[in-house]
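Service request form, structural biology core

Requester: graduate student, group of Dr. S.
Request type: structure prediction, single chain
Budget code: on file
Notes: please return the result as structure tokens.

Sequence provided:
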Amino acid sequence: MSTSVRRPTPRAAAGLAARVAAGENPIGRARRVNRILRSLAEAYPAARCELDFRTPLDLAVATILSAQCTDERVNQVTPALFARHPTAADYAGADRTELEALIRPTGFYRNKTNSLIGLGAAVVERHGGELPATLDDLVKLPGIGRKTANVILGNAFDVPGITVDTHFGRLVRRWGWTAEEDPVKVEQTVGELVPRRDWTIVSHHVIFHGRRVCHARKPACGACTLASDCPAYGLGPTDPGAASALVKGPEREHLLALAGIVTDEAGR
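Core staff response, request fulfilled:
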């Protein structure tokens, strides 16, 4: 393995962390945010919603199922589910036992069954069977909170929305974009830093980075292209070799190349 990119020195990393903790200059923060956004766009040019869907209703259902479950597992379950329940009326009138069996692999299947049946009934009764396309209407539906509503708006209706899941909240706090813990306040703060037109794609970029590089317990700091702009640099291993072993996902080789890390044919 070889590497050609300079990581921040301990002194430089400590200086950035101190500036952010003391209250970063708004102009400096804006420039740093923009650099991070450009780096994320280069790192994840194919970023998208990783849940498979055809219709807005499909996406609403898949997002409900994704709670405490991986997108990969949800995508294994939904083809049969969507074929059996193509409309809101189908969920409203679903046989509970059959529906529970279909979604059981996603976990918490009884509660999720309640949400899907309730969602179908509410969409039929309040919206004529068509999923609404506004935040206010969506969050009033069973099983749909603000995070889920923003996923639906951004990916099914092309209405910009910021999706604050656990990855997103963790990363923007590590980057010093906000210190807020409440998802709504995080959404509002980040919405002031990022152009509205970019809210949906930035959500994907941040979530992709959280799943692939900036892990909760052990971020791959030494293999991260955002290292020089991250006040949390050093939270994980900074050695390129140790860090590269932590990078996950289909973009791994691309991410390592951007970070200046060249691996051997075995990927080491």
